[in-house]
Amino acid sequence: MADLSKLREQIDQADQDLVKALVKRYDLVMEVGRVKREKGQAVFDPKREERVLDKVTNLAQRPEEDF
Ligand SMILES: C=C(O[C@@H]1C=C(C(=O)O)C=C[C@H]1O)C(=O)O
């Protein structure tokens, strides 16, 4: 059986990785916003958001045997 404290260390690391990835994404989105404003483009792009959501939804798919 896997050691509980080792599993929790891995969870803590995964949490740190997630927060880092979210901060990186936030910084990139802010940069995209600055570039769009400079170009006089609308920041909100619902079509792009739909594509991002579709892509992320696909990435989150796991085979049934994983559950
Ligand atoms: C980041 C962009 O701009 C905005 C933010 C998005 C996001 O958070 O994924 C997606 C579309 C836009 O509303 C982009 O155009 O790529």
UniProtKB/TrEMBL annotation:
SMART domains on file: CM_2
Superkingdom, taxonomy of origin: Bacteria
Read off the Pfam families from this record.
Answer: CM_2
For this chain's UniProt record, which GO biological process terms are given?
Answer: chorismate metabolic process; salicylic acid biosynthetic process
GO MF terms listed in the record are: chorismate mutase activity
The answer to whether the entry has keyword Isomerase is: yes
Q: Where is the Chorismate mutase domain?
A: 1-67
Sorted UniProt keywords: Isomerase
Q: What is this protein called?
A: Chorismate mutase domain-containing protein
The species this protein was found in? Lactobacillus delbrueckii subsp. bulgaricus (strain ATCC 11842 / DSM 20081 / BCRC 10696 / JCM 1002 / NBRC 13953 / NCIMB 11778 / NCTC 12712 / WDCM 00102 / Lb 14)
